[in-house]
Amino acid sequence: MVPEDRKKEILELLEQHGYLTVEEIAKTLYVSLPTIRRDLKAMDAEGIIKRQHGGASHINADRKEFPFDLRNRTCMAEKKIIGRLATGLLEGSDHIFIDTGSSCYAMAEELDQDTELTVLTNCIPTLQILSQKNRITVECPCGRYDPLHRSICGEEAAHFIDSRYANFYFGSATGLSEENGVNTLTAMDVAVKRAMRKNAEKTVLLMDHSKMNKRYYYNAFDLKDVDIIISDRPLPANLAKRCKEYGIKIITP
Questions:
Q1: Residue 62 DSSP code
Q2: Could you report the per-residue pLDDT of 138-197, keeping only the tens digit for each?
Q3: 22-29 and 3-17 are packed helices; what angle lies between their axes, rounded to 10 degrees?
Q4: Of 9, 35, 126, 174, most Cβ neighbours within 10 A?
Q5: Least confident segment among 22-36, 47-61, 100-114, 170-184
């Protein structure tokens, strides 16, 4: 089992049990004690879990931002579905913005090898995926590097985006709610999200069901500013009603 897969398994165990000893985790995963201790030390440093009393405890996911590589390994099947649906909006020769969401990364993976596009993204893993496709031209803004999200962020990046225009902005966030719209736990990429939305003809949210009716500290932009929402399940009734009022198109499998 590779380290990132093991971290995901550890996180799921701690989410289920709250607290486990090193011995309990090692026994469950059939991994040596030193290996588990190294994993827990790394996860604690990343702020994913809390090491304590010979073991580790889960940190409430409603109050933490997880690294891109770990987020990219959760709800993988759902994000693949969302990514595939998103590619259906493209007609070729489009100019699009893609932000740091893991569902956006899934969309990049689903793009056909010969799709002709110009893409501006501030997500380094997405940029790397797209640069391998024959007919996609990729741009990346300059600005501050955020290692947690593996992205370029900040006002300088937003200023770069202001000089571009896209047919679509494909974005995501930590949560979506009636009260706080498209929202996130961190202010790091808010400026970029706002710039992408402002400079795109249509804003498309790629969000799996786990993010619905979640409200976090920072508002990126309001629900009424969204044109299309793509998800793996029908939206909760309250959000579906609000989307209908705002004329937002909802796409699900």
A1: G
A2: 999 999 998 777 899 999 999 999 999 999 999 999 899 999 999 987 788 899 999 999
A3: 120
A4: 126
A5: 47-61
How far apart, in Å, are the Cα atoms of 78 and each of 82, 91, 110, 185, 232? Answer: 6, 23, 13, 22, 6
Supply 192's token pair: 């970029």
Strands (DSSP E) contained in the chain are: 19-21, 49-52, 55-58, 94-98, 117-121, 136-139, 144-146, 151-153, 166-171, 175-177, 181-184, 200-206, 218-221, 228-230, 249-251
**Residue 159 C-beta-side C-alpha neighbours within 13 Å:** 6
Query: Tokens 């793996």 label which residue?
Result: 232
Contact 96, 167 (CB under 8 A): yes
Q: Are 207 and 172 in contact (CB under 8 A)?
A: yes
